[in-house]
Amino acid sequence: MHFRWSPATRQAARDDPRGVPHGDSPGTRASRQSRGSKVLDPVSLSPVDFERLMFALDASVSVSKRVQFFLWTQGALQNFLPHETLVCVHGDLPARRYAYEVFSRAVLGDEFNRAFGDPVGGLIPRMLDHWYVNEQMPLGFDAEQSQWERTARQLGRLDLLPATVHGSRLVSSQHATLFIMLRTPQAIDVRARYMAELLMPHMHLAWHRVLCADRDAAERISAPASPLTDREVEVLNWVREGKTNVEIAAILRLSPLTVKNHVRKILRKLKVSNRAHAVARGLSARVFRNYPEHLAVDPGPRGARGDRSS
Question: Closest Cα partner for 44 from 164, 189, 182, 204?
């Protein structure tokens, strides 16, 4: 979706700071400071910037694959958080149990991998420490760094400066994220801090959609092939719902004898002796993954109680 403003709307946005984050009123800023909240002051956005920002936010919603994430971070996101290399860290960050992935338009060598891959003294755990000390606010590294000088020097030796670091706050520790943006055009400034804070929830959600899609794909690949035919799975699913052979026959428009034969084949294929064990074995084999846990509609007759034997 592309947002277009009329000239009148653009003029209204310039005239009214409530329409575009041009700044706070003195009363709003004083109120926030009196509460002691760590909120960055808004920066001025031109109508063109605001339109680009809406496009970047809208585009983030469609990200669910790695290639989409890469194109988004190297495309629309570059207008507000420009960088050459992005390191995405995810996991239980407070406990230092994490994984990371790198998206870059540059060729990165073994020295980079050693520096970021070291789980004890590497750059990622050190940057995590710095970010927590900085009260989980956007953090910058540059050649003139006086604080966290060791980390800045190592980034400088790797020719990765300037750098910006920010992560997700107030989320489950096991699903936290930290994003390290390397070789930004300039050292972090007020605008970059504000944009990192503003865009972080969208980066966090987009990256987690990628991770969830990966897990779903892995589960589909690792799921064992069902030993049952589609019809047998259908019959077993109704057995799971507590239906008798007569009821299943009415639901599936089969004869009770046909259903009975299906049940016998199911017991034989699953190597069990009764219907309850067949359902348990079916659950463990995940043969019901295309069926809801409980079917809301029961088209079968409720009064009939037919043969429950195999």
Answer: 189
Q: Print burial letters for 96-110: b (CB count within 10 Å at least 16), e (below 16).
A: eebebeebbeeeeee
**Predicted local distance difference test score (pLDDT) of residue 252:** 93
pTM: 0.62
The single-letter code of the amino acid at 80 is F
**How many domains would you assign to the chain?**
2
d(CA 167, CA 214): 21
Same domain, yes or no, for 33 and 135?
yes
- Whether the predicted pLDDT of 54 surpasses 60: yes
Q: What angle separates helix 190-222 from helix 47-60, to the nearest 10 degrees?
A: 20
pLDDT at 145: 76
Out of 191, 220, 249, pick the residue that ends a domain.
220
CB atoms under 10 Å from CB of 88, counted, come to: 21
pLDDT of residue 68: 95
Closest C-alpha among 55, 69, 105 to residue 85: 105
Helix, strand, coil distribution of the chain in percent, nearest 5: 50, 10, 40
Distance from chain centroid for Cα 247: 43
185-216 burial: b if 16+ Cβ within 10 Å, else e: eebbeeebbbbbbbbbebbbebbbbbbeeeee
Mean of the per-residue pLDDT values of the chain: 81
Of 187, 172, 177, 164, which Cα lies nearest the Cα of 77?
164
Under DSSP, is residue 202 helix (H, G, I), strand (E, B) or coil?
helix
Per residue in 272-305, pLDDT (tens digit) is 999 998 888 888 777 876 665 444 334 444 333 3
Taking each helix axis as running N to C, give the angle between helix 190-222 and helix 66-73, from 0 to 180 degrees, rounded to the nearest 10: 170
Is residue 199 located within the same domain as residue 242? no
